[in-house]
Design a protein that fits this description.
Layout lengths: L14 H10 L1 H13 L13 E4 L2 E9 L5 E4 L3 E6 L5 H26 L3
Parallel strand pairs: 2-4
Antiparallel strand pairs: 1-2, 3-4
Length: about 120
């Protein structure tokens, strides 16, 4: 853990007041840090058939479709279909999905920002 921290406070507060307040919150901060460290983390993706992925807050099972055509991704009601060449490795599958995720975000971002839903 870093030994420095930042705080956003009104400019008219005395440094000593800020320091005293921060000291009173140290126990709470340490408890929160322990909770965060103890949280279960997602396992690294292997991009295998029936692996669970989250798309737009919905869990989908990955379905690997080996094909001789260009890589693509298809979103189905309960599945995320990844069409890749038979010789594709984990890195290639990751790259294809990353590009697809970025395209999905780019497609909806303008409307979300325009409507103020960000």
């Amino acid at each position: 853990m870093p030994s420095t921290w930042e705080s956003c406070v009104p400019p008219n507060l005395a440094l000593n007041t800020i320091r005293v307040y921060a000291i009173t919150k140290l126990d709470w901060i340490k408890i929160q840090q322990r909770k965060m460290r103890a949280q279960e983390r997602e396992t690294p993706r292997e991009y295998l058939d029936r692996e669970s992925h989250v798309v737009w807050s919905q869990r989908r099972l990955l379905r690997i479709v080996e094909t001789a055509t260009a890589p693509r991704v298809a979103l189905k009601p309960s599945q995320l279909e990844l069409h890749v060449r038979p010789c594709s490795d984990t890195l290639k599958r990751h790259e294809v999905l990353e590009v697809w995720y970025r395209e999905q975000i780019k497609a909806v971002a303008p409307a979300l920002l325009k409507n103020g839903n960000h």
